[in-house]
Amino acid sequence: MQARQWVGVIGALVLGVAQATLATGAETFDRSEGLNLNRFVRQGDVAAHIVLRSGTDPRLIVAFPAGNSGVGLWFDAVSAPATWRFDGPATPLTQADAKGRPLHGVRFTATLHTAALAPKQAVLSSIRVLRDYQGLGTAPKPVLTDARANGNTLAWSRDRLDGAPGYALSLTAVHGTLHDGRFVAGPDGDITLTITALSGEKPLTPVSGHALLNAHAQDDRAAREALAFLSYREKYLAGSWRFDTYFGRDTLMSVRLLMPALQPAAVETGLRSVLERLSPDGQVAHEEDIGEFAILDHMKTDGSRSDAPVYDYKMVDSDYLLAPVTQAWLLDDARGQARAKAFLAGKLGDAHAGDALMRNLRYIAAHTQAFAADPVAANLVSLKPGVPVGDWRDSNDGLGGGRYAYDVNAILIPAALDAASALYRSGLLTPYASKQDQAMLAGLAHAAKVWREKAPALFTVHVDTATAKQDIAAYAKAMGVPNAPALRAVGDRPVQFQALSLDADGQPIRVQNSDGGFALLFGHPSPAQLDAEAELLRRPFPAGLMTPVGMLVANPAFATTAEQARFTPGAYHGTVVWSWQQALTAAGLARQLTRTDLPANTRRHLESAQACLWHAIDATRDMSNSELWSWHYAEGRYQVAAFGASGKDADESNAAQLWSTVYLAIPAPARTAAKCKDRG
């Protein structure tokens, strides 16, 4: 509660003067993950994600896809861990604010077993503001508002900073009482609250059911529910509660992996949302600031209270994803081929989708020329100046301090150049390409060949057998995990892998990583490259990436001690499991196994890696729709740990993540004789 200031009892709650309109028959589902109890509700103009956090630091958040808005209430710590429970359903409702304007949200009742519950701070604003408050403990002063008390009810409400309909939150004690600004339990030790949460941001248009998925989609109810909540006619949301809006990379990778299971209009929703947010010079927007967060941006930059969206173009990888994903739809999918000309001719403002795509192709061609002409490390595509992130590993430590990302330079750039060349040869770009463009496009096949042949070698790390065994033993001891399986997998062979990134001097950050999955999905690796990738996937951690609770996205066993400290099980991109990375690798392995040019040994290696991966996927099915998870080793085995449940974790996982739903389009492989072998 802001400065513990309590406004006196008022005659009527500021949540509105009009009678609430309650809806019935809503789409709703629950998820429990670590300390978080999640309930998703969607019907008509209402889409809401309720997050009740248990433990010694209780919290409640209600996130709304409308305007990427939300309301949250953080409480003072309690003496003993307390657990929330829902009492009955959550009901969608529309209610007028004090000026008669509609607010949309939910009402629900929940109970917490604790002696007292003291509100510490309410934040009603953009989810971006709530995210920052969760991580930093601060929020912009203009968005904070005091509580109003009335009997057993506390309420907060305010207009948006530009005077538009804003946000409201109220808590009413229906078991226990409100006394001196805190809720006090009844005789049984329970506090039961009826909670109403509302947002005045403009609702999105929901898409679900047969309008979203086709008959090829897997029968996975949990994934279908999560995907539906994140799908709208205007755009896809990256994940909830923390990313309830457009993210370019997430949209592109999700559309690519889900493509076989999506309806054509659903594929094109994703592609169009990316194209309409391109920068004037063709860069893909990473994230959008909308609603009140856009207003806060404008207040800082131009002093206005405009809510015009502000786009973030700091990422590098997304620029090189658009062309391969577009190729997959317009050229490689029969449904997309039939719609290709109409899609590119579709209007995006005053221009066509094809015009926007050409802007991106010009951008990637220009920024890859230097290396194509002189393939040395200094000519690779680096992160942008002053920015420590640039690919999907977008935490500050995600690339280990590197400036040149392996996935961008060795995989995505050649794939993008190949895709641009294929689109040019198809003739689809002719209406949108000038003569100068056509000359540029004609040269991209050669540029792709240079990148494909020269870039990967700059990231290759070799570790001799003796050093590798020493590194594995030392790291296993430090992590408290067994070393015998890993040492047995290495045997008497040296270790070779692709570095996560290169530093500013072109030296490798010696961290094994899962980014080879991009090559499996977008590339045409040689048999030797496939053998190396299969070995990395099969080998048990810390010799490779595989654990019984999933494929890790990073293994720093062969890195320096300082680098190892960046990649812990509590780091967002550390020794953790990301569901979509497993799905990416699964889809990529399936794609490579359709090839007819592979040696028998390479095929066996891929089939063995596939068996190892799917064994881990099947063992953690209940986590597959989550963003990521961690682990701990206890009682002689690896055990799943919800990311964010530990006070040492850098962040928390979303209970619904767009690219974690992609298993809807990735069936488990048919049973074969292939076994999961960690060597040979």
| Share of helix, binned | 25-40%
Major sheet size, sense and barrel closure? 9 strands, mixed
Q: Could you tell me the number of beta strands?
A: 36
**Backbone structural class:** alpha+beta
Proportion of β residues?
A: 15-25%
The stretches of 5 or more residues where confidence is low (pLDDT under 50) are 1-20
Number of alpha- plus pi-helical segments: 19
How far do the termini sit from each other?
Answer: 61 Å
User: What is the radius of gyration?
Assistant: 26 Å
Task: Write up what this structure looks like.
The chain contains 19 helices and 36 strands. With 680 residues, it is α+β, with helices and mostly antiparallel strands.
Secondary-structure blueprint of this entry?
Layout (H helix, E strand, L loop, with lengths): L5 E2 L13 E2 L4 E7 L2 E8 L2 E8 L5 E6 L4 E7 L8 E3 L4 E6 L5 E12 L2 E2 L1 E8 H10 L10 E4 L2 E6 L8 E9 L1 E3 L2 E3 L5 E10 L21 H9 L9 E2 L7 H11 L5 H12 L11 E3 L1 H11 L8 E3 L9 H9 L3 H12 L1 E2 L2 E2 H15 L1 H5 L30 E2 H21 L8 H8 L1 H11 L5 E4 L1 H15 L4 H7 L4 E4 L2 E2 L5 E2 L2 E2 L2 H7 L4 H12 L7 E2 L2 E2 L2 E2 L5 H4 L12 E2 H14 L7 H20 L8 E7 L2 E6 L13 E2 L23
Summarize the structure.
It contains 19 helices and 36 strands. The chain is an alpha+beta fold.
Question: What attributes characterize this protein structure?
Answer:
680 residues, alpha+beta, 19 helices, disordered N terminus
